[in-house]
Amino acid sequence: MIVYLPDGRPWPGQLGEAALDVLELRPAEVVLPEATVRDERGGRLFNGSTLMFDPSAGGGPLADAVADQQARAFGVTNTAFHVQRALRFASALLGHPLPRLLVRIGMHDQPRRWRGGHYRLPRSSLTDEPATLSSAGEVHLGGGAGFLPTPDGSRYFHAPAHNAAIICHEVGHHLCRHTADFRLNRLRPPENQTNRKIALDEGTADVLTAILLGTPDIYGWHRGTLAEGDQRRRKLQPRWTMAHFVGGRDQDPHADGTVWASACWSARERVTATGAGAARFDAALLRGMESAGADADRLTEDALIQRRQFSRLLSAITQADPGIAPVVLAAMAEHGIRPDASNAALEDAARAVLTGEVGR
Ligand SMILES: [Zn+2]
What we know:
Layout: E1 2-5, E2 14-17, E3 24-26, E4 29-31, E5 35-39, H1 65-94, E6 101-105, E7 117-120, E8 138-141, E9 147-149, E10 155-157, H2 164-177, H3 199-213, H4 253-273, H5 278-292, H6 301-307, H7 310-320, H8 325-333, H9 343-359
Parallel strand pairs: 5-6, 6-8
Antiparallel strand pairs: 1-2, 3-4, 4-5, 7-8, 9-10
The structure holds zinc ion.
């Protein structure tokens, strides 16, 4: 099959051949051992067993029907590849598979076209989500909207299924749900979980994306018009610290999450520089997340508050691999993150350091 292989540049990637482990091919759906990826707009995208499609610059409403069909088929196979790659990366480090993931493409395109993605669990209150959602979790990707530039100056219809960064980020939420479980969804009724995300959830999804794409500029393609130092770009370098942390219910968890993602990225680079290998950090991160998710047996406000603390997850990571703990702690400290302190205390301390530097 042909997919986009990420090469760290701000565009969809390098087209190349890759292998995919497929259980079954249905007209608009690929069934993998660990996930199902479906185009919800129906029709027959797959004939026979070949998965060689042309990306057709993303297809979209301005493309002709044949090109749009190719772009949709490419979107399903490209998404299947990145989903399988991300889930296998996680299960290899954890030593067990994650629950099956359902990925639905072409969702929420009414009344306005959607170029984003999200991760959803079932909940009982009224939403614009489908009546039945998998209790293990689903990734929804829009059918696309708007155009993005490419290096050769052409325009590319922004279909999220063509954008590995969006796919990897959403798989990251599935990983969080079934390891650190920041919102204690496993203690809630399967049909009434919560979809609210905290900063650690967004930040971990972002650093997983950086690891899988091999670049700290994870959204350089579709957020490329934002300055590299704009927090909304969510580039993990330059260094974001607890002085940038805001917290609270009204704050966008993606922005606060950038502090965590940026600190993890620094720690990973530091571990790599010691010659230990990046996988050593990746394993500690994932196993730390799993142990951080394991200890609550009651759904209380206290347990939820604990799970929001950056220091708690940091301690879990260092306990997962004491051999790299000093290096990880030193790197995290440069972002204002250290063990045994609340997010608010870390934020105050980091701001005090900044004020001191300015005053001197
Ligand atoms: Zn997210």
